[in-house]
């Protein structure tokens, strides 16, 4: 592996979190006020610990977002805006995957296909290039990669181990073998090994089982994952199978990972459609973990699990019911930028 390139883990120091503000031209339009309240709470929580870099479609949206944040008491000195057109707001998947390169950075710009061509993504696929050209970031190399990959589909421990789901990557590249996909990922992301999960999914998730809805690293020796203890639930068998897979995983030294199973929220339905309420879709920032909350009794237990998995970090709950209406949650709408990257 190149000794001057490294894919940092999410828990490493950050300069900012990147988001895109919802507006009438996005799929959020029918329920815009509700989702804006979630965005205000999310940006407010981020700004307590570090800057937020917020994409806005135009000057009018910048003014609206700024007014909403200011009314909520958010320190706008901790918020920077970037005017850029976008199709949607899932920055985990359309934003940059950043490698450290010596004393600088490399912005990996994978082909964003809107989860296998499910939606329009022409503007979102240009986002990384426009961000690189904006002058908002420290000098970084921009590397376009003609390979479909979303940030929510991968997890790294920062030390050369990648975690992903075969369902997602196989759906994106049905003509490629597991060996070919693994080699492409490890070369582009500078990883020494890849751990694949073959079971686990969530109803209401249209990402084809992104890893960030199912299992996450909590340091190089631990994994937090979404469990299900309701035998009557359709998720019980696949998530039990996934739990067994995770229990069988081994660290590079051959030892098992410390495991932190997350509780299972009661089904959340919207006009009869079940929504993907995963507690694994949390965001790690400087000094805190922002946790999706769903107004369920399991919220408190999930917060307690994350507190044990991330000792020393404050656990901040964010109401994410408005987000899961569009099939994603807190981690899906954010992308962390490593320390030093924001100019």
Automatic annotation (TrEMBL):
<dbReference type="InterPro" id="IPR007466">
    <property type="entry name" value="Peptidyl-Arg-deiminase_porph"/>
</dbReference>
<keyword id="KW-0378">Hydrolase</keyword>
<dbReference type="GO" id="GO:0047632">
    <property type="term" value="F:agmatine deiminase activity"/>
</dbReference>
<protein>
    <recommendedName>
        <fullName>Agmatine deiminase</fullName>
    </recommendedName>
</protein>
<dbReference type="GO" id="GO:0004668">
    <property type="term" value="F:protein-arginine deiminase activity"/>
</dbReference>
<dbReference type="Pfam" id="PF04371">
    <property type="entry name" value="PAD_porph"/>
</dbReference>
<dbReference type="GO" id="GO:0009446">
    <property type="term" value="P:putrescine biosynthetic process"/>
</dbReference>
């Amino acid at each position: 592996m190149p000794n001057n390139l490294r894919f940092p883990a999410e828990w490493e120091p950050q300069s900012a979190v990147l988001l895109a503000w919802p507006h009438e031209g996005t799929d959020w339009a029918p329920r815009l006020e509700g989702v804006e309240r979630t965005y205000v709470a999310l940006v407010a929580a981020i700004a307590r610990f570090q800057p937020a870099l917020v994409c806005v479609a135009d000057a009018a949206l910048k003014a609206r977002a700024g007014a909403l944040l200011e009314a909520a008491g958010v320190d706008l000195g901790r918020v920077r805006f970037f005017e850029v057109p976008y199709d949607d707001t899932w920055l985990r998947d359309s934003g940059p995957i950043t490698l450290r390169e010596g004393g600088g950075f490399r912005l990996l710009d994978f082909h964003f296909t809107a989860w296998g061509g499910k939606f329009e993504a022409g503007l979102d696929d240009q986002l990384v290039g426009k961000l690189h050209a904006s002058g908002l970031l420290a000098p970084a190399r921009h590397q376009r990669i003609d390979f479909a990959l979303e940030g929510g589909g991968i997890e790294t421990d920062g030390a050369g181990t990648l975690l992903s789901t075969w369902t997602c990557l196989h759906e994106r590249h049905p003509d490629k073998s597991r060996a070919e996909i693994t080699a492409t990922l490890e070369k582009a992301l500078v990883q020494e090994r890849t751990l694949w999960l073959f079971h686990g999914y969530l109803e209401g998730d249209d990402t084809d089982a992104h890893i960030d809805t199912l299992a996450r690293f909590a340091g190089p020796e631990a994994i937090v994952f979404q469990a299900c203890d309701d035998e009557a639930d359709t998720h019980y068998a696949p998530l039990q199978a996934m739990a067994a897979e995770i229990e069988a995983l081994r660290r590079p030294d051959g030892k098992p990972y410390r495991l932190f199973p997350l509780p299972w929220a009661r089904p959340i339905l919207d006009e009869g459609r079940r929504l993907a309420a995963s507690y694994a879709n949390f965001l790690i920032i400087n000094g805190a973990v922002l946790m999706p909350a769903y107004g369920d009794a399991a919220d408190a237990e999930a917060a307690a699990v994350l507190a044990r998995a991330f000792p020393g970090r404050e656990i901040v709950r964010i109401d994410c019911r408005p987000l899961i209406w569009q099939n994603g949650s807190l981690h899906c709408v954010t992308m962390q930028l490593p320390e030093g990257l924001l100019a």
